[in-house]
Amino acid sequence: MHILGIESSCDETSAAVFSEGRLKSNVVSSQSDHVRFGGVVPELASRAHLKLVVPVVEEALAAAGVRKDELTGVAVTAGPGLMGSLLVGVNFARAFAWSLGIPCFGVNHLEGHMYANFLEEPHPSYPFLCLTVSGGHTQLVLVREDFHHEILGETLDDAAGEAFDKVGKMLGLGFPAGPVIDRLAADGDPAFVQFPRPMINDRDLGFSFSGIKTAVLYWLRDNPSALSDPEPRAAARVRSDLAASFQAAVVDVLVKKTLAALERTAVRDVAIAGGVSANSELRRRMRQASEAGGFRLHLPRMDFCTDNAAMIACTGYMKMRSGAVVDPYPRADPNLAISA
């Protein structure tokens, strides 16, 4: 089987080819136009996808050494995501698959992140627990078997990645801010400010990150000169300390909730997925917890953490292999929920 995957849920146009159980190519074209706006502008994103989708698909096929007429199926992100961006990918995929007479699989973006952990060995054994942390979602999901999921907890407000970007904007770090906060935090003091850890001791496995974000805002309000010290090194030190303190609060919550879910489900495999799974402190703390708790931890390679078509192609391959029912006309759904 040769599966072409297409991802266009936000501001990355990506195509990949997954053949006979292994990834043959993965091309990602990121959009830089959004940086000056401090966030993704939906209209600009969808227009960029229109320009990029054909050359990106052609590049992925060429890199894989697979001809169009050799493809077995096309997998495309159907949601969740930005409606305009999703429409570009879904409509292209449907037309492309129809022209070749092959099936088109709609793939849930969040499921793609979860099954990114199957792109390399060793992959999780069923059942496993997956913490999905990205700019739009934070969820704890029990994956019982292929495409049978139970959501154990999710965020009640901001997602973890969204909180990173908003705090980064407060600190003047630009967009996207997650990787910058991660780098600054490495030189900062995580005990500089004791920001709140919302819901960390609740039996409920849900999350809330808006309170941490607001606490950073209030600290900056109460210390207006902290980031404008005439001595550049002093201001840089405060910025690093704030980044470390904020990051520590978010990671504490993510790790504690994951361990609580692990205890509740009694599974032995834990996977992390989504853009925030690239965060070095989260990876360090989860490795530490894995060594102490004796569970198997699965972390995607860095380039499989952020949005990419490799995870969509892999998920499409798994769907076809499992004999899943195919909707020949998948539709874009910005609020698509993961399958039960």
Structure explained in plain terms:
The chain is an alpha/beta fold and 340 residues long. The chain folds into 2 domains: 2-115 and 304-322, Nucleotidyltransferase, domain 5; 124-299, Nucleotidyltransferase, domain 5. The protein has helices at residues 42-64, 83-100, 109-115, 160-170, 178-185, 210-222, 232-265, 280-293, 302-305, 309-322, and strands at 2-7, 12-19, 22-30, 73-79, 104-108, 128-133, 138-145, 148-154, 269-273, 296-298. A 5-stranded mixed beta sheet has the order 3-2-1-4-5, sandwiched between helices. α3 packs across α10 (309-322) and α7 (232-265) packs parallel to α8 (280-293). The two termini are 26 Å apart.
Assigned CATH class of the largest domain: Alpha Beta
What would you call the shape? globular
What is the rounded distance between the termini? 26 Å
Low-confidence stretches: none
Number of structurally distinct domains: 2
- The arrangement of helices and strands along the chain is EEEHEHEHEEEHHHHEHEHH
Architecture of the largest domain, according to CATH? 2-Layer Sandwich
Strand fraction band? 15-25%
| Number of DSSP E strands | 10
In round numbers, the mean pLDDT is 93
Main β-sheet, in a few words?
5 strands, mixed
CATH fold category name of the largest domain: Nucleotidyltransferase, domain 5
Number of helices: 10
State the CATH superfamily name of the largest domain. ATPase, nucleotide binding domain
How are the strands ordered across the major sheet? 3-2-1-4-5
Helical percentage = 40-55%
Based on secondary structure, the structural category is alpha/beta
Q: How much is the radius of gyration in Å? A: 20 Å
